[in-house]
Write a structure and sequence with these properties.
The complex is a heterodimer of chains A (268) and B (517).
Chain A (H helix, E strand, L loop, with lengths): L10 E6 L8 H10 L10 E2 L11 E9 L2 E9 L8 H5 L5 E3 L5 E3 L9 H5 L6 E2 L8 E2 L5 H5 L5 H5 L5 E5 H14 L18 E4 L19 H8 L2 H33 L2
Parallel strand pairs in A: 1-10, 2-3
Antiparallel strand pairs in A: 1-9, 3-4, 5-6, 7-8
Chain B lengths: L1 H21 L4 H7 L39 E3 L9 H9 L21 H5 L5 E3 L3 H9 L4 E6 L20 H11 L3 E4 H20 L10 E2 L4 H10 L13 H16 L7 E7 L3 H7 L5 H5 L11 E4 H10 L21 H4 L6 H15 L19 E8 L3 E9 L1 H12 L7 E5 L20 H17 L9 H11 L5 H7 L17
Parallel strand pairs in B: 3-4, 3-6, 5-10, 6-7, 9-10
Antiparallel strand pairs in B: 1-2, 8-9
The chains are: A alpha/beta (268), B alpha/beta (517).
The complex binds iron/sulfur cluster (4 copies).
Chain lengths: 268, 517
């Protein structure tokens, strides 16, 4: 499968976890920009912070030890925007698409709700709207509309301590390398450089990544190389779905027409 | 009715259809047809400063980190608009945010001052609300609920009821508290006067060398935000801090010892509430060492000196909860024994007030002469200038050099001078909030961000009242005199030291302070 569709690695974000003070501006900015609801059961900040269909990003609090001293660290999670996204290759309906800018974005109108993406993603990112009658999958979109205009993603721009740098992935990698090499406090690893074949969001940290809840056992082989094996089972599925969905489509259209007519009556 | 029902049904069906239309269940069809529409997300908004090409930095951005377990402040994310005002005041005015190195250690650095709450345009940041606790205490017939009101609340509370800035509502505040069922309504001005005697004696002891290991200049210690700031950023200057507790804590310790004893009340049944212009007072009251009444009674059970602290804004909510129209109340008087306060105690609410009060008494103690007229209108230390100074000739003693600082950002250069040994002062008043307690983090949000106009109106009201009082010197307070005669003996007596003085915590290890050029 031709995954090197784009010549450039595209844009990305470098997150320096040692600079985060846990203010939660980024996760709030994400909610504001994407018009997401708040959910008491799934906080987007704090020790229990989790990604959910309403939290496209979450800042998780970790109390860990460094040099024998207790320290507080905060980890901002979101989609890592893989260079060769497993979600995209798992999705037969093309609801997930890696773009030239480096963002992997999700088109709701294409989604059939099969949730293969959720199984495929090595970082457990896509979330399902369990509480909706007609649920969709949701995830960070890297503020696609903003980066198209040359703006930084919403979360990046609001951070008061410059935890995040937005830019070309190559340049970010160079910056990350320079930063960790010039300062002893950093762990000598750039998370995302090779994980899952490389991601466009990169992390550096002064505390080992495994202590901060990062999956460190992720393969460095691009996931799509495995997943087209599994994708070969999808054609029969899509045919079956197609039949059902076409039926639904016709039904919808008819009801819409009726609805419009009813509306006419209502406005009297 | 039936028609209505039918309509609801139709609407529901229409909603259903609308959902069907927008939802991706037609997805496969679209996929096969190869067309694509809008990606998810991006339907909301962000303030203007974040709508910039590329990742240009913006001046005002983000928000302050708040400790989720802070006893002082909470924030409601659903109201926050990421305007950055909280960072602005915390960094530029208070010099707290950004004055430490990253990564942080194990502390969300904050002095609990609540200035961020005062600047927040949407009131997303507020005090941790304890109104309900007070209601429960008031409704419990077994509890003896006493309340003290700080000097600065009586010139601001009215604003929550539509009165102009600085309106004097002392009598109405007392009346409202009595109507709500507080068993005793007392005045923190009483312990403000007491503070002057304790702190003034301490100063004289430092000057005369009686207090060994306690250097000059002496720093005031009534402002808990300032105290935490000193503990964080200037722990090596802790010996300069007066050991006096703040008036709130002196009051709390005395209510459950002195008052309880004289009136035969079981201190365990006393609920001690205070009404403060300040959010840091909540933090102060929760300091583990603030249980001197418990120590005094050798109690196994924890006896806190102050149980609940309400801000002025919370008091307004409590009064409204009971449906009381503050402005319409007749004025009432504080209860005796701990209810008398001098004009000197009253002006504690304004920047420069503690200093002015102190010199009135210091003059008397050192010379045994009544203080001259100028000390009753000590203009050099009044007003809103960030750092004010004065020097006073005290016959037989010499020149007393004093300074007054308010707003923590203004404190840094003065503290640096002290550190370098270049400070000419004997006594420095520090107040955490710009303007002093009148503009504390718990005061009504009468202008946003807080304006000097409002601060000045509240301050003017305090000075006017002081000028109109007969009792204008702390050492003339009869109830304070009685307290010493019947209980404490004399300033800095052994018992006074136990109940009215405290120790400080070095917080220098909690973080790495940023080197200032
Ligand atoms: S992190 Fe998961 S959801 Fe995001 S691009 Fe990679 S595979 Fe897709
Ligand atoms: S905005 Fe920046 S400092 Fe605040 S939580 Fe997010 S990454 Fe951390
Ligand atoms: S001042 Fe209030 S609204 Fe503005 S960023 Fe801070 S918390 Fe949010
Ligand atoms: S309470 Fe004061 S120190 Fe704490 S965040 Fe607010 S302004 Fe800053």
């Amino acid at each position: 499968m031709a995954y090197n569709k784009f010549d450039t690695p595209g844009k990305g974000v470098l997150i320096d976890l040692s600079k985060c003070v846990g203010c939660g501006s980024c996760s709030l900015a994400c909610k504001m920009w994407n018009d997401l609801k708040f959910d008491d059961k799934f906080p987007d900040q704090g020790p229990d912070a989790k990604l959910s269909d309403k939290n496209w990003t979450a800042v998780r609090f970790h109390a860990v030890e460094k040099d024998g001293q207790p320290v507080f660290r905060f980890v901002k999670n979101q989609c890592l925007h893989c260079q060769q996204p497993a979600c995209e290759s798992a999705c037969f309906s093309r609801a997930f698409q890696r773009t030239e800018s480096g963002a992997t974005i999700y088109y709701p109108h294409l989604c059939v709700g099969c949730r293969y993406c959720m199984l495929a993603c090595p970082f457990n990112v896509p979330k399902f709207q369990w509480d909706q009658t007609f649920p969709l999958v949701t995830k960070c979109q890297m503020c696609f509309g903003r980066i198209e205009k040359g703006e930084a993603p919403a979360c990046v721009g609001v951070c008061p301590t410059n935890v995040m740098t937005f830019g070309d992935r190559d340049e970010l990698l160079a910056l990350a390398r320079k930063t960790i090499e010039s300062d002893d406090k950093y762990v000598k690893h750039i998370y995302g450089e090779h994980e899952a074949g490389g991601t466009n969001w990169l992390y550096i940290s002064d505390v080992p990544f495994e202590q901060l809840g990062f999956r460190t056992d992720v393969t460095t082989r691009p996931i799509p190389e495995y997943s087209h094996e599994f994708l070969k089972y999808t054609p029969p599925v899509i045919v079956a779905w197609g039949g059902l969905l076409s039926g639904m489509y016709i039904y919808t259209k008819r009801r819409n027409k009726i609805a419009k007519e009813e509306k006419k009556d209502m406005s009297v | 009715m039936d028609k209505q029902k039918a309509r609801e049904k139709e609407v529901t069906r229409r909603n259903f259809l609308k959902m069907m239309g927008t939802l991706g269940l037609v997805g496969a069809t679209a996929t096969l047809a190869g067309c694509s529409k809008e990606p998810a997300g991006g339907g909301g908004w962000l303030p203007q400063q974040y709508q910039v090409a590329s990742s240009w930095p913006t001046q005002v951005r983000g928000r302050v980190p708040l400790d989720p377990f802070s006893p002082s402040l909470t924030r409601d994310d659903e109201k926050c608009i990421l305007c950055g005002q909280c960072v602005e005041v915390c960094q530029k005015v208070q010099s707290v945010f950004g004055y430490y190195q990253l990564p942080i250690k194990d502390n969300i650095v904050c002095v609990n001052c609540g200035q961020c709450a005062l600047w927040c345009p949407t009131a997303a940041i507020t005090e941790r609300d304890e109104v309900q606790k007070v209601i429960e205490a008031l409704e419990d017939p077994d509890k003896f609920v006493v309340v003290q009101t700080a000097p600065a609340t009586r010139v601001a509370l009215g604003e929550e009821f539509g009165l102009p800035a600085g309106s004097w509502v002392q009598g109405q505040q007392v009346a409202a508290l009595k109507q709500m069922g507080f068993d005793r309504v007392f005045d923190t001005n009483f312990t403000a006067d007491l503070t002057i005697l304790e702190e003034g004696t301490e100063l004289i002891n430092r000057i005369t060398g009686k207090e060994t290991g306690r250097p000059l200049p002496q720093f005031t210690s009534c402002s808990p935000g300032w105290i935490k700031f000193c503990e964080y950023y200037y722990p090596y200057l802790i010996p300069n801090l007066s050991t006096c507790k703040s008036p709130q804590q002196m009051f709390g310790a005395l209510v459950k010892t002195y008052y309880a004893k004289q009136n035969n009340i079981d201190p365990k049944n006393i609920v001690s509430v205070s009404i403060m212009p300040c959010t840091a007072k909540k933090f102060e009251a929760a300091r583990p060492e603030m249980n001197d009444a418990g120590q005094y009674w050798n109690s196994e059970e924890e006896i806190r000196d102050v149980d609940i602290v309400l801000t002025t804004r919370e008091l307004a909510r409590l009064i409204k909860h009971y449906g009381i129209d503050l402005a319409a109340l007749p004025e009432e008087e504080y209860d005796p024994m701990m209810g008398e306060g001098s004009g000197a105690g009253l002006i504690f609410g304004a920047t420069g007030g503690v200093m002015e009060a102190a010199v009135r008494t210091a003059y008397f103690v050192l010379t045994n002469q009544p203080a001259p007229e100028v000390l009753f209108n000590l203009t050099p230390v009044r007003g809103l200038e960030g750092v004010k100074e004065a020097s006073l000739e005290i016959p037989g003693t010499g020149t007393l050099r004093i300074a007054v600082v308010h707003g923590l950002g203004n404190a840094r250069p003065v503290l640096e001078a002290v550190r370098r040994g270049e400070s000419p002062y004997h006594f420095i008043e520090f107040m955490c909030c710009p303007g002093g307690c009148v503009s504390g983090g718990g005061q009504p949000r009468t202008s946003l961000p807080p304006s000097d106009e409002v601060r000045e109106a509240r301050i003017a009201s305090l000075y006017q009242k002081d000028a109109s009082y007969k009792l204008r010197e702390s050492h003339e307070n009869k109830e304070v005199i009685e307290l010493y005669e019947t209980f404490l003996d004399h300033p800095i007596s052994e018992l006074a030291y136990k109940l009215l003085h405290t120790k400080y915590t070095d917080r220098g290890d909690n973080f790495v302070a940023k080197k200032l050029s």
